């Protein structure tokens, strides 16, 4: 298939583009490279030294003989988006190309507006471009498990059947997101659902858990293909961040009492889930929702696992509970369904000591690049 990966220079997108290319798909990357610009603005950097996108793609071609087309442009530049789509002629579009940090969206008004304008309008542009030029193309859109919040009932995959006053209906699952970033994803989901209904587009919304790990079969082939690994207080996510903190001897930064429970998956499963979604398209007019994660952990569980993995490597790891900069429930129920991707053939990589060891070893290898002043959270949710 011809698959355009929007956001293909980012953490999930880069690994996915290479994986799909390796599996024989014709792949294109569409990315404005704005994430590299935001890093520079905030004076943060990936732990791993990522090469410029052109160098990455040339190395991939030299190693495998496979060419990945590159479109450097912004989803919010509609004429360029149309031009790129018409040139590439996609059968599927995988959309990772958004501002994806909750703390970034909570810095101030400008960052909240930037996040929602970039994400919601970019996604809306894509929907119109698909409607006008590729109505049969399958949209695979990255959402997040954070869209659901932490309801006191089981989280279903996108829809819930409710009986009310003697009548019954299957409705979109209620969303209670916890940041302006997560809200942008909810708005995207609504827009895509509506576009499927009125124009007959086909879409899969992947509510992805927090991704951890850095190596995939493809990104591990060569140093120039290395993926980004964020550890700073704005873009770094749990577990990746903890491993890097452990490597530099910084106490693990557990927010609040650490009972917050979330859904997680290995980056090797991210790329596989996308491949599964692309190979099994939604029907015309269908807005399909999958919960894309493999396991659930509390923040304390993660901290304990990193401590244990550290001790097997002779690294002493301390844990520090910080005042929670976010507004979120700490002691809560969390039980989410995730059977759709398993039913389609996902064979999960579960979090194990060996993964933690390799992530810790990776973090240790590049620890000289860590700027310790970027570790603690600086963005607060409250006024
Ligand atoms: N990383 C995670 O743990 C995680 C978890 C759940 C969901 N997701 C979702 O997966 C997607 C990718 O996340 P990531 O961690 O790879 O993020 P990332 O920041 O590493 O990558 C996003 C990429 O999109 C590009 N981009 C952003 N806005 C764009 C625009 N308007 N036009 C063109 N390109 C644009 C950026 O330059 C960047 O390369 C996001 O939509 C995110 O919400 C990520």
From TrEMBL:
Q: SUPFAM superfamilies of this UniProt entry?
A: NAD(P)-binding Rossmann-fold domains (SSF51735)
Q: Which domain of life is it from?
A: Bacteria
Q: Which residues form the signal peptide?
A: none
Q: What Gene3D superfamilies does the entry give?
A: NAD(P)-binding Rossmann-like Domain, UDP-galactose 4-epimerase, domain 1
Q: Which residues form the NAD-dependent epimerase/dehydratase domain?
A: 3-291
Q: Which PANTHER family does the UniProt record give?
A: DTDP-D-GLUCOSE 4,6-DEHYDRATASE-RELATED
Say which family it is in. Answer: Belongs to the NAD(P)-dependent epimerase/dehydratase family.
Q: What is this protein called in UniProt?
A: NAD-dependent epimerase/dehydratase family protein
């Amino acid at each position: 298939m011809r698959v355009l990966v929007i956001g293909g220079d980012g953490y999930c997108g880069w690994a996915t583009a290479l994986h799909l290319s390796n599996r024989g798909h014709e792949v294109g990357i569409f990315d404005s490279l704005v994430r590299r610009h935001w890093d520079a603005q905030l004076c943060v950097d990936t732990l791993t030294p990522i090469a410029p996108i052109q160098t990455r793609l040339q190395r991939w071609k030299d190693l495998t003989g496979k060419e990945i087309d590159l479109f450097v442009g912004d989803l919010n530049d509609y004429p360029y988006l149309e031009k790129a789509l018409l040139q590439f002629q996609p059968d599927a579009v995988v959309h990772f190309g958004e501002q994806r940090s909750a703390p970034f969206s909570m810095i101030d008004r400008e960052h909240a507006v930037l996040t929602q304008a970039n994400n919601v309008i970019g996604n809306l542009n894509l929907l119109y471009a698909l409607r006008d030029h590729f109505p049969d193309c399958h949209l695979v859109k990255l959402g997040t498990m954070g869209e659901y919040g932490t309801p006191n009932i089981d989280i279903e995959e996108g829809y819930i059947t409710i009986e009310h006053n003697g009548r019954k209906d299957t409705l979109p699952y209620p969303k209670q997101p916890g940041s302006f970033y997560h809200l942008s994803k909810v708005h995207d989901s609504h827009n895509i659902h509506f576009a499927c209904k009125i124009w007959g587009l086909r879409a899969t919304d992947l509510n992805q858990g927090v991704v951890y790990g850095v190596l995939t079969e493809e990104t591990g082939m060569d140093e120039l293909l290395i993926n980004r690994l964020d550890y700073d207080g704005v873009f770094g996510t749990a577990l990746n961040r903890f491993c890097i903190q452990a490597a530099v001897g910084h106490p693990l930064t557990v927010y609040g009492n650490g009972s917050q429970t979330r859904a997680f998956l290995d980056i090797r499963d991210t790329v596989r889930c996308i491949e599964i979604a692309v190979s099994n398209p939604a029907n015309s007019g269908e807005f399909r929702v999958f919960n894309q994660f493999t396991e659930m952990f509390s923040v304390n569980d993660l901290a304990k696992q990193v401590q244990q993995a550290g001790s097997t490597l002779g690294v002493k790891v301390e844990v520090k509970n910080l005042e929670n900069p976010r507004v979120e429930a700490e002691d809560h129920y969390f039980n989410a369904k995730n059977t759709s991707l398993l039913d389609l053939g996902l064979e999960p990589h579960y979090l194990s000591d060996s993964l933690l060891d390799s992530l810790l070893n990776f973090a240790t290898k590049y620890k000289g690049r860590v700027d310790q002043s970027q570790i603690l959270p600086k963005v607060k949710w409250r006024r």
